[in-house]
Design a protein that fits this description.
The protein is of the alpha+beta class. The protein is 51% helix and 17% strand. It is built from twelve helices and six strands. Helix 2 (20-29) crosses helix 3 (34-52). The protein is elongated, with a radius of gyration of 25 Å. The relative contact order is 0.12.
């Protein structure tokens, strides 16, 4: 049996975060081979992850990465059981490593890839569970690349993150501080007002018909002619759009104008026809 020194045990513990006795046993089993010992500990970590898998993960952080030219960006939700763990350096390192793996995978990064035990994100999470002793997960991520100017906003504490993509932003405008400020304002709007769609035309037909049916039911006893009821129903849809469609919402910066008007004002000031093409809002513990 290989002689295992205290320095070797400490080195493996620093590398893996496992306990001293576990590290010593793994090194003895591996004959002093650090890579093999690390594998042994990771296998044990996977076993421990399976035991913790049923425990609720309602805390965590939204991680962010954005390319220097703002042509690509990633948001990722990484969850754990307690806010205490979410604030540790080890957990924040996990978030950074997960972001790096998603960026490296590029177009290969899908939901199936995320959950595949053979892929790096699943392995990183399993190792972190073994080290920190809590159940953890990466429920979802959003990656935009190569289709427009990407902006992000992380709400205080890292519990809500927004990613928004704009079309019509040439590279010279993309570097202007006025655009940076405006992009942040739109992202903050999404964080605060939780729209579901960019425009009213993006609302699915079945969702609209459900709303119409509710409004019609409310008017059933009014005694008004059907044609009048339909006009009232369409009018009520305006309030619905103001809740769920980003550009129809009242601006949180200036409630006297809609987000569409704010976008048009910014486009005129910047001299380029800016439009929002898509966005994502991630909140810790919220079902996708």
């Amino acid at each position: 049996m290989a002689t295992i020194s205290a320095a070797d045990v400490k080195k493996l513990r620093d590398r893996t975060g496992a306990g001293m006795m576990d590290c010593k046993a793994a090194l003895e089993e591996a004959g002093g081979d650090f890579e093999e010992a690390t594998t042994i500990l990771r296998k044990k970590g996977l076993a421990s992850a399976a035991k913790k898998a049923g425990r609720a993960t309602t805390e965590g952080l939204i991680g962010q990465w954005i390319a220097p030219d703002h042509h690509a960006g990633i948001l990722v939700e990484v969850t754990c059981e307690s806010d205490f763990v979410a604030r540790t350096d080890d957990f924040q390192r996990l978030v950074a490593e997960v972001l790096a793996e998603i960026a490296k995978a590029g177009d290969r990064a899908t939901d199936a890839w995320l959950k595949d035990p053979a892929e790096p994100v699943h392995q990183l999470v399993a190792a972190a569970i073994g080290k920190l002793g809590e159940n953890m997960a990466v429920p979802r991520f959003v990656r935009y690349a190569g289709q427009g100017h990407v902006g992000q906003y992380i709400h205080t504490g890292g519990k809500i993150g927004v990613q928004v993509e704009f079309a019509g932003v040439p590279s010279d405008v993309g570097a202007r501080p006025e655009l940076t400020l405006f992009v942040k304002e739109v992202a903050m709007q999404i964080a605060a007002a939780s729209p579901l769609y960019v425009t009213r035309t993006a609302v699915p037909a079945d969702v609209l018909e459900k709303e119409r049916a509710i409004y019609r039911a409310q008017m059933e006893q009014s005694g008004k002619p059907p044609a009048v009821i339909e006009k009232i129903v369409e009018g009520k849809l305006g309030s619905f759009y103001a809740q769920v469609a980003l550009v129809d919402q009242a601006s949180i910066r200036d409630p006297k104008m809609t987000v569409a008007e704010a976008i048009n004002a910014a486009a005129n000031a910047l001299g380029t026809p800016i439009t929002v093409t898509r966005f994502a809002r991630l909140k810790i513990g919220e079902t996708a």
